[in-house]
Specification:
33% strand; globular; alpha/beta
Length: 624
Amino acid sequence: MAEIIINTKIKKNKISPLLYGVFFEDINYGGDGGLYAELVANRSFEYYDRNNITQKNKMCWEELIGTQFEISSEKPLNNIHTHYASISGPEGCGIRNSGFCNEGFAAETNKVFIFSCYARSEESTPLAAVISDISGNILGQFDFVCSAGEWQKYEFELIANKACKNAYLSVILPKGGNVDLEFISLFPQDTFKGRKNGMRRDIAEMIADLKPKFMRFPGGCIVEGRSFENMYNWKDTIDPVEERRTNWNRWQTEEYRNLGFDASDYYQSYGIGFYEYFQFCEDIGAKPVPVVNCGMTCQWHESLLVDMDKLSPFVNDVLDLIEFANGDKTSYWGSRRAEMGHPEPFGLEYIGIGNEQWGLEYFKRYEVFERIISEKYPNIKLITSAGWKDCGCEYDIAYDWMSKNKDKAYAVDEHFYKAPEWFLNNINRYDNFDRSLPKVFIGEWAAHTSSDIRKKKNNWYAALTEAAFLTGVEKNADHVVMSCYAPLLARMDHQQWQPNLIWFDNSNVFGTPSYYIQKLFSEHMGDYSIEALCSDNDLKISASIKQNKLILKIVNISPIDKEIIIRSDIALDSEYNITEISAMPEDENTMKNHNNVFPHVYTEALDGKYNIGAYTVSIIETDF
């Protein structure tokens, strides 16, 4: 019989209130084609070949029978979107959008969509927005007329009259003729929080249900880019959506197709821009933690460097970002935020300088950012990087730099994707970290069950070892102040990376076993940790106090049920609230069975004795 001894009077460490958050990056179609609720792919006909070899402006569009479909650029809508569709033909001609990943979108009976487009014609021309299935059966239609003259915007509700998992949008000319079309868009009306240009509600709700205390965004490797032109710049993302440039997504490249899924149609519309990120953080109660480019592209690939004497624009972009987020509405960038609909500041406190950067060249650039930003905004907490490893040369360089520059960063961003056994062996990783150094932000991490990406599973064993690791993190949460699993989202059968926290398709979304570990650990978090001793090494535990409540987390990593005696130095209430997840190591959640691995909640009078099943995570709460 195992014994757990709880000493409530021996306080260990304060637990950071920001310990559990989320990390969003547009990978696995998690942004365009995922969280972003836009249903039309290549809505502005601006997809392009990153190698400038072939024309891709028509990508995700096809002409209907008898249609003349050309890409034109004479007198475009604006200077950003310089291409548009010129359509001509007989009655019923038009173009159809294939949707993201060639899968269309989900329609439901009486579901309301918001259709919009810009159209131009030399004479009054009847048009129709049509929802149909793959065979052309009409599921919804709205007729309108394009007036003669210059570009005009048309917007209206389009209602589906039948359910269809793979529906498609077409714009047709019922009586034939000629028309120019640009920025064709379709959104579900019921976006998250009902926001215009908003998020897909079911996916956003899954994220919100994690109760994240912060959100790191927009990347990730997306921030770095693969070329100077491909770098992420937040200023490209805050103009009206019709004026935000299209950028190719670095996850479309061939080396990330090891799972066999084509991603040639993967681009960034910047429909989710920095305003939308800040607004989403506010909507889910998470502090924003933006990551900015530090003048370096991805060090895994081209590793291009902006010369030191040319860093000023990059640093100024960060200063402007702070003003955009926090500035008074009378300031230039604060007024831009107010014009977008948010006169009050967003309350930005944290910024990551660079993503997964390492080495002396990185710290030379970081120091420039830190000096200028800290001088103007001393209250902004800057996050530096330890690179992509949990140890080794690059990691040592980072910690050597921090030992000499202890006051130049609030925290250091550590990343590790490791085998489950690594997490079991590193539960005590942070026990002896030097508390005088910058705090730790575990910005990307996950247990990977194989070195072969095709065999990496979102199974219970991975989640179980992650839970065990988190018991050690919580004991050191005075120093490890933030953590977030990565990646957050993946579109089923179109991912470039796995495992992932949340999976989705056109009409469904589900959480993995790791999702429920993150959710439960976030929901059941104390204010400070206390001493808790266990006689059985198969049981990984942490204990904390929140007001007058004891929170005990137990992870049984063994294949054997365990009988436990719980002893405490103070009298505990005999009624315990228990949340458990128990499964076999290889068990997974799937699109057909979302809740194969799922928490169960019950109340029981334990009288100091508790039986925990094999391969089980249990969270016990009781008053004292």
